[in-house]
Amino acid sequence: MSLRRSSRTPLLTSLLFSVLLLSMEAPAQTEPEPLEFGYIHLPPFGYTDSEGQSKGYLVELARQVFSAMDQPVRFVQHPATRLYRQIDSGETAFTLAADDLHRLKNTAVEAEEPAITLNLTVYRFKDTQPVSDVEQLKGHHVVLMKGYSYGELGRFFEAESDAMHITEARTHQSALQMIQFGRADYLLNYQTPADTTIAQHGLTGLESDVIAQLDVHFFVSKMLENAQALADEWDQNLRDIKRDDRQPSKESYNIKSP
Predict the structure, then answer these.
(1) pTM, full prediction
(2) CATH 3.40.190.10 holds for 118-214
(3) In the chain, what is the straight-line distance between the N-terminal and C-terminal CA atoms, in Å?
(4) How far apart are the C-alpha atoms of 33 and 184, rounded to whole Å?
(5) Would you call 116 helix, strand, or coil by DSSP?
(6) Contacts made by residues 26-32, CB under 8 angstroms, sequence distance 24+
(7) Mean pLDDT for all residues in the chain
(8) 172 vs 8, more confident
(9) Residue 74: helix, strand or coil by DSSP?
(10) Among 62, 189, 177, 172, residue whose Cα is nearest residue 122
């Protein structure tokens, strides 16, 4: 009996050693590299706080959707021009922008489900004639936000630029103060960030008219081979989040519903 055990021991040891060696040589499972989600400075929808953290309603909504997709991402703020250029090249994989954004028409796949609907609003001094249509802005000095997309209205301003005096402002405060101090007639802006700026800085004498609504959609760089599949997966998970009413609270960001 003892002789049989001793003859089997080297064989058993050899087998165990082989299994151990194979397990050590097997490639480890690695997490996929996070892809970049780019956003512009548009508080309270997207911004970078004083500690360098990405914040805002749309940033938090994107985190929820990507978590449901099991898609690792990193959030990076860019100026609009750089953001769109990096979507073109694939350096930035994802963003949220105005639906049917002409700038990304050829370089990104657009998802279908709106992430949010925004009010496009014309701001004016209280004594200035109200407007209900962009055609009424012709012949006036109009302020637009530099780098912002205005959807179909953006194409209107490109086509009719000779029919009005257009100035681009870099900040909401400077844009609104141009109206407040009579340096321009009208400002076209997104309602929530503009109203937030008015409240924060105590700007007075301003009135506003909502003239359009704009849906915000998810865009995927076409440099990703599975761009359409990612857009479809985003849509499905966003619909599920909406159905279950799990999106971030708009009230906590002082966002008015259209």
Answers:
(1) 0.83
(2) yes
(3) 87
(4) 48
(5) strand
(6) 31/72, 32/72
(7) 90
(8) 172
(9) strand
(10) 189
